[in-house]
Design brief:
3-stranded mixed β-sheet, mainly alpha, globular, 54% helix, 3 strands, binds zinc ion
Length: 244
């Protein structure tokens, strides 16, 4: 097993379980600058053209499409069995795919403004992201909370369900790094709990495109749990601010 194999498996898996990428070239890349950085993975509007020369040189360019950056080498460098590393790598890549799917399905008004950070300089982008993510004080809502909300969580649950119901069970909900499995978001619920609350929807909509799932009204039980969890995050920040 290897990092390259984990990337190939993930690309094939996403093509199989995500109808939205049918016919769209998909690249999972490992920018060297990311290895061992705080940023385990990211997606970015300009990542595809930025990575094009490297992909072309490696004979891996498939055309303009969806591109995911993930620090797979760092996972395989850890002192863990290769099978575990592969599971974590697939989970990380699915996590980044969830970001792409939420962003692609958001109505234009909800899309974040195009990133004005140095678009052609991945090193600068990674450094800036590291700075933003490590700039945490107890009195603030964790920066990661805003990018990993209820719709992102729902997409992660769907990806997890589609993965395991496709016959490959070597993956846990927490491997997709959402809910309280995300560092700094320990006040959210366990990923398995979110998946359980969505279980009927996961089965009923397992072949649906994510562009239909993302904007749909959230099931009530899941929405209530998310509201309670988000309140906990906000209340904690307020309490920390009052105590400061
Ligand atoms: Zn994320």
């Amino acid at each position: 097993m290897s990092a390259a194999r984990a990337i190939t498996i993930s690309e094939q898996l996403i093509q199989r379980i995500v109808p939205d990428v049918a016919g769209v070239p998909l690249h999972v890349v490992q920018p060297k600058v990311m290895v061992g950085s705080v940023l385990a993975g990211f997606v970015h509007d300009r990542l595809c053209p930025i990575m094009r020369p490297e992909l072309e040189a490696a004979g891996q360019w498939r055309g303009e499409g969806w591109t995911i950056a993930a620090d797979i080498d760092h996972i395989f460098a850890r002192d863990i069995p290769d099978s575990t590393a592969e599971r974590l790598a697939v989970g990380l890549i699915l996590h980044e795919a969830a970001h792409l799917l939420v962003s692609a399905a958001a109505p234009p008004a909800d899309k974040p403004a195009p990133n004005s950070e140095p678009a052609d300089d991945i090193a600068a982008f990674v450094a800036e992201s590291q700075r933003a993510l490590s700039d945490e004080s107890p009195a603030r809502i964790p920066a990661a909370f805003w990018g990993h909300g209820d719709r992102f969580t729902r997409v992660c649950c769907h990806l997890y369900f589609r993965y395991i119901s496709g016959g490959n069970y070597r993956l846990y909900p927490k491997d997709l790094i959402f809910g309280n499995a995300y560092p700094t978001l320990d006040l959210l619920s366990d990923p398995g709990k979110y998946a359980w609350l969505l279980w009927d929807e996961l089965g009923a909509n397992r072949y649906c495109a994510f562009r239909e799932i993302v904007p749909a009204t959230l099931p009530e039980a899941f929405a209530l749990q998310w509201q309670a969890d988000a309140s906990r995050v906000f209340d904690s920040a307020l309490a920390a601010r009052a105590a400061a």
